[in-house]
Structures are given as structure tokens and as C-alpha cells.
Amino acid sequence: MTCFADFVKVRSLGLWSFLLAAAPVALGGCIVVDGDGRHDRGHHGDVYHDDHNDQDGATDDGSQEPSEDPLRVAIDTDAVVESEPGEGVGIFVEYAAGGTWTLWTTCDTNTSKVVCSFDLYASVDTSSELLDITGVELEKTDATRLADEGIAYLHAETGADVDAMTFTTTEGAVVRLEAYLDGELQPRFVYWFGNGVLHEGAPSNPLDFEPTSP
After folding, report:
1. Strand runs labelled E in the chain
2. pTM of the entire predicted model
3. Per-residue confidence at 136, pLDDT binned at 50, 70, 90?
């Protein structure tokens, strides 16, 4: 059952630790939905329709296929997102002033009864630094590491909980995110605030995030 609840929303920085500690709350099968209220997944890996219009890049349902070339978007400094653990699939991106980034994940386990397997790569260009990779609320099946110079990696087996990774970069650095769900590129589940708007789904994968202020 799809519920049109706005449980993906902005929250204050002070609520981050509370969100991680909070127990999952059942919302009667509510899930994260697209901007137009659609939800057309079966298993969480089955995302895009195979048939599409090759002439204009649109799928049968009118949505646009993401670009294969990385695009750059704005991410609001100090804006953070809230979502109920276990109630919907999400890959959330946040940036705090001074160079701290947070990537965190949720799944629809409360309704699907399965776990989401995420692989996230965050990188900076050679003129910027990426340091201090830290896992938050990770279990034995999860891991963070420096995949290569300037590339942070998070593997998360997310159920009815939240898994997260934080890292620091040069202030105002552009960060490129490449996001996989169950081994497939899945841009539609990426959420962030940019120019005061909650963006639901990335226009490309990889996607470049540029903070609105350092």
C-alpha cells in the first residue's frame, strides 16, 4: 500500500543522533514515493521499465531516463533530510559547512521483508582532499574504506535501520556520487536538498554535488 506521507523532509542538525538511535516506527506500509506520488517497484531492484522511447529518452510512463554523463547540482549547506528507517528505499546526501559530508541509506524492509544492498562511492577531484572516513551505526555486514585516493566507499546491507558514512573534504569541494542498489546503478533513490527544494531522484549517475556555500 502506498501512503502519501511526507516522512522524507528537512530536519535540524541536532536530530541526527536521535534519528540513528530511534527504533523503526511502523507507518502502515508507507513508503518513499516519487515526486508525482508513483511507486512502481516490486522488489527494490526492479526500478526502470525496460521499454522506452529512444527518440526522446523518456520511458513509457513519461519519466526521463537519467543521463550517463555526470551532471552537477547544487546541495544546500547545512540542510539535512529525515526519513523513517524501514519505510522506503533512500540514498541521502548532506553537506555541512566546513567540509563534512554524510551519506546514509534506508530500505523498505518493513513492507518488502528484504534487505537493500548499497554500494556508494564518493570522490573528489585531484585539487581537493577527502579525509576522515567514518561509519555510523554500521553492522558486521557493512563497511567503509578509502577505495582509492580521494574516493570514499560505503557498503551497507540496510534493513529496518539506518546505515551511514561521514567524511570531510576541502571546504566547498565538489563531490561525485556513484550509487548502486543490489549491484545496479540506481539514481532514482538519491535524495538531497538543493536551492531550498527536496530533490527526489538524480538526473545522472554518477552525480556531482556542489555546496551552495563552503
Report:
1. 9-11, 52-53, 58-59, 71-75, 80-82, 90-96, 100-106, 116-123, 130-136, 143-148, 151-158, 163-169, 175-181, 184-185, 190-194, 197-200, 207-211
2. 0.72
3. very high
